[in-house]
Amino acid sequence: MMRFPDVQAADHHILAAGRPAFTYFSGGEVLVGAEAEQPPEGARQVVFEGHEGLKGTIAVSAILDGSAIEKVVILGGMAAVPQMLVDTRDFVRPVWRDGALTLVTQFARNGVLVPFEPPNNRPCCADH
Predict the structure, then answer these.
(1) Is the dihedral of CA 109, 125, 40, 2 positive or negative?
(2) Chain segment 77-87, per-residue pLDDT in tens
(3) pTM for this predicted structure
């Protein structure tokens, strides 16, 4: 198990290696697990089957058919329907929920969904 001070450092390590891996928090650190390990509930998957194809704005059905993501939900728990569009912002980090790789989204403009985790995550209150 590798330990990192923050999510960005952990993601960089995972992306450089190019192998399926996930991150999760424990004791104030970010831990990285490999595909041979069972991800804990809430772990965020960084590299997974089909992740490289999740670019631009695509239908929920294409996400489900073309990647390891098993569910797409809207913040609050509602399931996204296959015809809905997701603007991936070229950054998709699904999480493990109830044993299923799940992409959590939220509404953006014009009914299009975006992944809940933004590509440029900042710690709360970092700018004041």
Answers:
(1) positive
(2) 899 999 999 99
(3) 0.88
